[in-house]
Automatic annotation (TrEMBL):
Keywords: Hydrolase, Metal-binding. This is Hydrolase. A divalent metal cation 2 binds at H129, H153. Belongs to the metallo-dependent hydrolases superfamily. TatD-type hydrolase family. One of its GO terms (cellular component) is cytosol. It comes from Pseudoalteromonas amylolytica. One of its GO terms (molecular function) is hydrolase activity, acting on ester bonds.
Length: 254
């Protein structure tokens, strides 16, 4: 079986010393490709060299709401220019979105809308971060509809919310959250939506699985996420793996 980790921050310092090993270890388990999101303009620019060095990594460019204080008008302008000039090296715009626990919500929303426009202009999908913000994301989608879909990273929410995103052309990112019993609502959603709407992701080095709390999450844990997902689904594991791989390739044109 083959897999794609559709969301992992492999350029973070946590992997500075052992990235080659991490990639090799994951690859031995069948993880062929890794999608590495952009989080600031500087870091998005640096991902070009990163993807040249690690050819199994595909990269995106975006302004993540966690770093809202760094995202000036100038940074947005630079992102637009950078993405236009390097469109063929990018698989998506993001990680962008709205985080209800971060400051400057009106500016977060404006930046998100601008990144939706950018993805529409470049015909690229979006990698969307959400946290206590489904209503604000829906509001932004209404004002600035995304045309090329994307993924709702680390989806958690109700079946109704899931169906709304699917209708907007989005996939739902399935990560380590489902390893926790407390995520029963999200687990149920992942068991109910069509298999074609799901993608696998680790969010490494963040979001360690149950039993690994406090540790650096690693891309090889994608297989664990897959096993947890298989427990929730009625399809055969091979069919699940094949569909998720196909959906990932199609969305990110890998
Ligand atoms: Zn992320």
């Amino acid at each position: 079986m083959h897999f794609i980790d559709t969301h992992c921050h492999l350029d973070f310092t946590e992997f500075k010393l052992d990235l080659e090993q991490q990639l090799a270890h994951a690859h031995a388990l069948g993880v062929d490709y890794f999608v590495v999101p952009g989080i600031t303009i500087k870091q998005s620019e640096s991902l070009l060299a990163f993807s040249e060095r690690y050819s199994q990594c595909r990269v995106a460019a975006g302004l993540h709401p966690y770093f809202i204080d760094q995202h000036t008008d100038e940074a947005l302008h630079q992102l637009i220019l950078f993405a236009q000039n390097n469109k063929h090296h990018l698989v998506a715009i993001g990680e962008c979105g709205i985080d209800g626990t971060c400051p400057q919500l009106p500016w977060q929303q404006a930046l998100f809308a601008e990144q939706i426009k950018l993805s529409n202009m470049l015909q690229l999908p979006l990698i969307v971060h959400h946290r206590q913000s489904h209503h604000l994301i829906a509001q932004t989608f209404k004002q600035t509809p995304p045309k090329f879909g994307g993924v709702i990273h680390a989806f958690s929410g109700s079946l109704q919310q899931a169906q709304y995103y699917i209708k907007q052309g989005f996939k739902l990112g399935v990560g380590g959250t489902i390893s926790y019993e407390r995520a029963s609502k999200t687990r149920k959603v992942f068991s109910q939506v069509p298999l074609e709407c799901l993608l696998l992701e680790t969010d490494a080095p963040s979001m360690p699985l149950s039993g690994h709390q406090g540790k650096v999450n690693e891309p090889r844990r994608l297989l664990d996420v897959f096993e947890y997902l298989c427990q929730l689904r009625s399809e055969h594991p091979e069919q699940i793996a094949r569909q998720l791989y196909l959906s990932s390739c199609t969305l990110f044109r890998i």
